Amino acid sequence: MGNKMPVDTRESRTANLSHLLDEKRLNVIRRQPGVLSVIAFDEGFPVKSLGGADFEQVAAIAEDFLRTGERVTSDMRMGVLNQITLEGREKKCIIVPYGDLSLCLITTPDANLGLIRLAIRHLQALEILVNEGGTGI
User: Hey, which residues does 95 pair with through a beta bridge?
Assistant: First the structure.
């Protein structure tokens, strides 16, 4: 009678993901040459950000791209979406899954995407380690 079902809100999910939002982890990517900002987001809402950007707008747009990308990869039978990369004359944008969240990175146009992708994979591998009972960083 006194047992209430826990309410699953964006805030409660974010609290359970605090290890994903550790600034040391996000700085692994932010410190890469050419990275201007890193935004962790959930359902289009920014939950942690480093650098300079209009984080609310970027998170909302990144969520739209992510959902569309997932639909496209599914419809084309490409497998699971690994990342989305947008390149413009003035900046580049990379959107990737990160545990139960997603990351959006904004870079300079000359940023070395290969090095940035290695940093992303390192971060994703740490998340797998944590989920298997390790400690990560």
Answer: 84, 104
What confidence tens digit (pLDDT) does each residue in 44-99 have? 999 999 998 789 999 999 999 999 999 999 999 999 999 999 999 999 999 998 88
Of 16, 18, 43, 101, give the one whose Cα is nearest residue 7: 16
Owner of token pair 């971060």: 123
Note if the pTM is more than 0.85: no
Question: Where does residue 25 rank: exposed (0-12), middle (13-18), buried (19+ CB within 10 A)?
Answer: buried
Q: What average pLDDT does the chain have?
A: 84
Q: Which of 119, 121, 129, 125 is nearest to 31 (CA)?
A: 119
Domain parsing of the chain, residue ranges: 22-131
Q: Looking at residue 5, what DSSP letter applies?
A: P
CATH class of 22-131: alpha beta
Q: How far apart are CA 18 and CA 80, in angstroms?
A: 25
Phi/psi of residue 95, nearest 5 degrees: -120, 125
